[in-house]
């Protein structure tokens, strides 16, 4: 796990020799505000790092389970595999789509330009980026619906195959 320092903050009050409306007072206020923003960013990064480490462990566990299921399937014959495959396939499809969504989100976070850089995008570029993100989220939702439909069709196919096996055995 990430070693997160304590969440306490220090408050520093430095009296100014000039008025509150002076340039020095404004600089001091902006400096303190920037430090506060950096502390919040640091807290968010620590929190994200903890989540990423938990996620990494979860991914490793899922990989081990997947490997064990693969070995189990390879050990069984095809007819046994088709009979007890039902809801596991639906869960697998749903899990795959969720993992792809998370991977895409993490990739977009890492590929975004640094917010503090001096080359901030113009307003039209930001609007276009926002529109693309919205369109991407709509496409992702549609993909999830299609994946659900595919898994339902696969379940129906397996049920029909089971019926066919039953009819052929009679």
Summarize the structure.
With 170 residues, the protein is mainly α.
Overall helicity: over 70%
Regarding quaternary structure, how should these chains be classified? single chain
- Total number of beta strands: 0
Low-confidence segments, given as residue ranges, are 115-119
Give the overall average pLDDT.
76
Give the count of helical stretches.
4
Termini Cα gap: 59 Å
Strand content: under 5%
Using the CA coordinates, give the radius of gyration: 27 Å
Instruction: Provide the succession of SSEs.
Output: HHHH
From the spread of the alpha carbons, the general shape counts as: elongated
List keywords for this structure.
78% helix, mainly alpha, single chain, 170 residues
């Amino acid at each position: 796990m990430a070693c997160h320092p304590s969440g306490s903050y220090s408050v520093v009050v430095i009296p100014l020799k000039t008025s509150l409306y002076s340039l020095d007072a404004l600089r001091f206020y902006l400096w303190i505000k920037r430090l506060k923003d950096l502390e919040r960013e640091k807290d968010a990064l620590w929190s994200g790092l903890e989540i990423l480490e938990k996620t990494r462990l979860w991914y490793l566990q899922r990989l081990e389970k997947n490997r064990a299921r693969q070995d189990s399937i390879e050990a069984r014959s095809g007819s046994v595999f088709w009979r007890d495959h039902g809801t596991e396939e639906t869960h697998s499809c749903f899990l795959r789509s969720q993992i792809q969504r998370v991977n895409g989100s993490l990739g977009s976070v890492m590929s975004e330009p640094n917010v503090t850089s001096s080359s901030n995008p113009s307003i039209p570029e930001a609007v276009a980026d926002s529109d693309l993100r919205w369109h991407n989220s709509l496409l992702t939702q549609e993909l999830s619906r299609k994946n659900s439909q595919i898994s339902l069709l696969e379940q129906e196919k397996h049920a029909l195959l089971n019926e066919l096996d039953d009819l052929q055995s009679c």
